[in-house]
Amino acid sequence: MQSTQAFQSFFLGGVECSTHITREGRRLDLVHATRHDQFAESDYRLMQRYGIRTVREGFRWHLIESRPAHFDFASATPIIRAAHATDMQVIWDLWHYGWPDGLDIFSPEFVERFVAFAEAAARLLSESFEEPFICPINEISFFSFAGGEAGFFFPFAHRRGDEMKRQLVCASIAAIKAMRAINPRIRICHIDPMINVIAEEPTPENVAMAQAYHESQFASCDMITGRAAPELGGRNELVDFIGLNYYIHNQWTAPGHAGSMLVPSDPRYRHVRDLLQENYSRYGKPIFVAETGIEDETRPAWLRYICNEVFAAMNAGVPMEGICLYPILNHPGWDDDRHCHNGLFDYPNENGEREVYEPLAIELARQQRRAARLISGEETFIDRRETDVSALDWAAHIMEKRTDESRS
Question: For the whole model, what pTM was predicted?
Answer without folding.
Answer: 0.95
